[in-house]
Design brief:
Radius of gyration: 35 Å
Distance between the termini: 90 Å
Number of strands: 31
Length: 732
């Protein structure tokens, strides 16, 4: 029976999501705010409207007189709307259509009338109990739905001294109650976290204290300050919570001015942040390089003022600049709406948000107006897809996400949603394709691991048969002198081709200029091949190898150039063909010239600066020696990065450690070889080699700084001259 009910609900949700946009389109006309999401590069991508304003309720006209500084709204389980009129110290109770039911301005307290004083927070339980954060009276007041007093909890009185900070003043501004009856309070200027009370109002301590993380610059300057300067400088204090709500699982959705958290009863932050970016609202992309896969963000003016927990882990956060950001349980931005202004759907000073079913209510403190936003078919499709997935209706969830894509083909979360639904159906290849479209590496990795395991299981007998045949063939080859045949047929011809002398003898009978040119080219090629092959000896025997490179002429500039070209090719191959799980840049925007120069420029700067520096410090190496030695030291990059790039296409994220070990290991190996190479070529001690290497790096930085400065000055000069030229031609 339960399954059939779920099926019925699922079909209903899908039917709603499958409706066309025709009914919502007229409502969207004249919307004063844009709708957008952010893609993986931090770019705002336009999106269809998720919510449109349905009506605006002027609270000054509901029959309770003018409001003064309203601070909070809460929607009860019976859909009653409670508005906290802070300036008038009262609560307005409204029906969902805006009709006034009652005003709670005072209550009977042991036979005498009692009143609130500047209350700033409200919470209503499912049973209809109203919790009021009576800020001015430093207490919590609990009323029934009719405004009758049930309990009053005063300031915290800890059983153990030292729990409360010295000079602590209890000024509650937000309050919530979890399903177990535990009470959590946000107190003004309380930096130790939320105050926890039990069901009887006994203070239990602080939970969820926000951590302060000073910047590196702040730590540096404070260390340089004198004692007096440190005392006069501003204290680095933790931030305080500004709002609070309870989600469908009884966890606390709390927010500071700049950060959203999901706190468990122990106060630990368990908010999932698996979106492209953390749930920080709008932000400024200070720099982005799609070619390098680097996006640097700066939090951009988003100050949270309230948060509303909604169904299946979805939550909507209201910012001070009038934007409502809605995220799913994984931290993915679903949609945005709202703005600052005087139009319908805009606010002057938004202060509180709550949900009325699938509608959204936003309270404007300055205008004392309550704006009701209704969902569009686009929003219904998104929520239907998420809810269907949570219900286990994965095929219907995928269909709902397909509906979302018909509204917005650039909606990355739809691809991930389809992928997750397909993953639940064990359709791994299709799931991987959708995860790739949605840039969802985590789920792609899991789908690939399942696909790989199934593939190995299905072809296990074939794989084992091939392995056994390989072992048998190897054993037979060794037993019947197969090694001799291999050496005779494969290795000896290669060695003969690597010998410049034999290559010359092979063409000695040739006559004329063509034959001589061919002999010279083949001799050069054979010698270069021998020099390049010697790099395999150098990387394992650096002391002898680099000595032979310089003094025995086992290497030359041609061989070094070939190695350098192979390094460039390896780097391009790495950047272009690494597996999706390990590629964080936009492959479609790779510039071949830029990729080549990103290797050649650092290489050339090292060679030139090191040679110029060592000529002043009795270095014995010539420019050619430094060039050859540096190129040979990069051989591990070729040997390790090529297989790492190939294998990255068959690895999961959990196995990525091996990929990174190979990449980083190649660089470390090359640096070690470069150290021994410079020590040999310049005949330095180890300490002097390290010192000159460090100074070389500083010299490269200095050169780049000067070059960029000159480039900037030249650009300004060109701009000035072009401006003068335009002015002269304009005058003439």
């Amino acid at each position: 029976m339960r399954l059939s009910i779920n099926k019925l609900i699922a079909i209903t949700l899908l039917s709603l999501s499958a409706l066309t946009v025709g009914t919502a389109a007229p409502t969207c006309a004249g919307i004063p705010y844009p709708s957008y999401t952010y893609n993986i590069w931090g770019e705002a991508v336009p999106a269809p409207q998720a919510y449109v304003p349905l009506r605006v309720l002027d609270l000054n006209s509901v029959g309770a007189g003018a409001l003064k500084d309203p601070q909070d709204i809460v929607v009860g389980s019976d859909r009653t709307i409670y508005v906290l009129d802070t300036g008038n110290s009262r609560i307005l109770c409204l029906t969902e259509d805006g009709s006034l039911v009652r005003v709670i301005s005072e209550f009977d307290n042991s036979g005498s009338a009692d009143r609130f004083r500047n209350p700033r927070g409200l919470f209503v339980t499912d049973e209809g109990e109203i919790y009021v954060a009576d800020t001015g009276n430093a207490r919590l007041v609990i009323l029934d739905r009719h405004g009758n007093l049930l309990r009053i909890y005063g300031p915290p009185s800890p059983k153990t001294e030292g729990i409360l900070p010295a000079n602590f003043q209890y000024r509650p501004i937000k309050v919530v109650v979890n399903p177990l009856g535990q009470i959590y309070v946000v107190s003004l200027d309380a930096y130790d976290g939320l105050l926890e009370f039990d069901q009887k109002g006994n203070f239990q301590g602080f939970v969820g204290a926000p951590k302060v993380t000073p910047s590196v610059a702040e730590i540096f300057w404070r260390r340089l300050f004198t004692k007096e300067q440190r005392e006069q400088s501003a204290l680095i204090l933790p931030v305080e919570y500004v709002t609070l709500d309870i989600d469908h699982e009884g966890f606390m959705m709390a927010a500071t001015a700049s950060e959203i958290k999901r706190l468990n009863p122990g106060g630990s932050d368990v908010l999932v942040r698996n979106g492209f970016f953390d749930p920080i609202g709008d932000f400024v992309v200070s720099s982005v390089s799609r070619e390098q896969g680097i996006v640097t963000l700066t939090a951009g003016g988003t100050t949270w003022v309230d948060i509303a927990a909604r169904e299946v882990g979805i939550y909507s956060a209201l910012s001070s600049h009038g934007r409502v950001f809605t995220y799913d349980s994984n931290g993915n931005l679903l949609y945005t709406f709202g703005t600052i202004g005087d139009s319908i759907g805009a606010f002057r000073d938004p202060v509180a948000i709550d949900s009325l079913g699938n509608d959204i209510l936003v309270l404007d403190r300055r205008s004392s107006k309550l704006t009701l936003f209704g969902p569009t078919e686009y929003q219904r499709a998104i929520h239907a897809a998420i809810e269907l997935y949570e219900m286990g209706e994965y095929e219907l969830s995928a269909d709902a996400w397909e509906t979302v894509l018909r509204f917005n083909v650039n909606y990355d979360q739809a691809y991930s949603g389809i992928g997750r639904s397909l993953l639940r159906q064990a359709r791994y290849v299709e799931a991987m394709a959708n995860f790739r479209l949605g840039y969802n590496r985590k789920d792609y990795s899991y789908a690939y691991s399942k696909y790989r395991a199934d593939t190995i299981t299905d072809h296990f007998s074939m794989i084992m048969t091939g392995f056994v045949l390989l072992v048998i063939a190897t054993s037979l080859a060794k037993r019947y002198h197969g090694g001799t045949l291999i050496r005779r047929w494969l290795l000896d011809p290669l060695r003969r081709s690597a010998s410049a002398q034999r290559a010359t003898l092979w063409l000695r009978r040739g006559e004329g200029r063509t034959a001589r040119a061919a002999r010279e080219v083949l001799a050069w090629a054979a010698q270069t091949y021998a020099c390049v092959s010697y790099a395999l000896y150098v990387i394992f025997h650096p002391m002898d190898g680099f000595w032979d490179l310089k003094h025995e002429k086992r290497g030359n500039a041609s061989g070094a150039t070939v190695i350098l070209a192979l390094v460039v090719a390896t780097y391009i191959y790495l950047r272009q063909y690494s597996g999706f799980l390990f590629t964080y840049h936009d492959v479609s925007r790779l510039n071949l010239g830029v990729e080549i120069m990103s290797v050649l420029v650092p290489f050339g700067l090292w060679v030139v600066v090191n040679w110029a520096l060592t000529t002043l410090t009795d270095g014995k190496g010539t420019l050619k020696d430094v060039y050859v030695t540096t190129a040979y030291a990069l051989t591990p990059v070729i040997l390790l990065c090529l297989p790492a790039t190939f294998l990255s296409n068959y690895m999961t994220l959990q196995e990525g450690t091996y990929y990174h070990i190979m990449i980083v290991g190649s660089l470390i190996w090359s640096i070690i070889l470069l150290f021994f190479g410079m020590m040999n070529v310049h005949e330095y001690s180890g300490v002097k080699t390290l010192l000159t290497g460090a100074v070389t790096v500083v010299g490269i930085g200095t050169f780049l700084f000067i070059a960029l400065t000159l480039f900037s000055v030249c650009g300004e000069m060109v701009g000035l001259l072009s401006g003068i030229y335009r002015e002269i031609t304009f005058r003439l």
